[in-house]
Task: structure prediction
Amino acid sequence: MQSAACCSLLSTVFAIGAFGGLLSGMLGVGGAVILLPLLTTFAGLTLKEAAGITIVQVVAASVISWVAYQRGRLVHLRLATYMGAASAVGGGAAGYVSGYLSSRTLEWIFLVIVVAAVALLLIPVTELSITGGEMPRFNAPLAAGLGLLVGSLAGLLGAGGGFLIVPLLIGIMRLPTRLAIGTSPVVILISGSFGLVGKFLSLQVQPDLAAALVGGAAPCAYLGARLGRRLPPRALRLLLGVMLCLTAVRSAVTLVS
Result:
């Protein structure tokens, strides 16, 4: 009976990973903002348990998405390096500290950050064109500060911070939507890797569930990235906004119930 229940749980996690991987590749969000509510709702995991395995998927999906967007020259590698290096500072420490926080505390942090991401997407943006492969200039100290913030959140929530990185790159750093989505996986890879180390050290990763999640997400993340390169920027922003709003509503309902 226990074996059947275990197989059912692994199958559910695999299916959730496939769905989350598709959207994460399409929107450059790593996938945790999609996977966390799905894992807590349909797989019956606590937020802390879900965060411990989503961080593994986030790192795997970010590598796949980076490769796909790099082929389309839609990665601002220098900007991603600045943000990623700063995110590494907060990622490992916050990933370890998260082991001492309750699931309810993490849920509140998650809700606040998702609402902030939605607000950033509402900032009017003029879509700039990239000519001759030349990447837009950026403010290095600002990029590092945003990276530090994202890394800390990545470590706490088991997310690479992609659901916040894309709105930050669009709303604050003023990158074109496609370039923001393509640059995000590189930042996620760095911040998520250090967050993963922190969660491994604090024994928050369940290997069997993490393997099932990555197994479902990995192939779909590449497919999603290919689809994302073909959708118009306005559609991508709208889809990301709708997804974040639904996530915020679900998180708020969980907190008040």
Notes: The longest helix spans residues 2-27. The chain is about 80% helix and 0% strand.
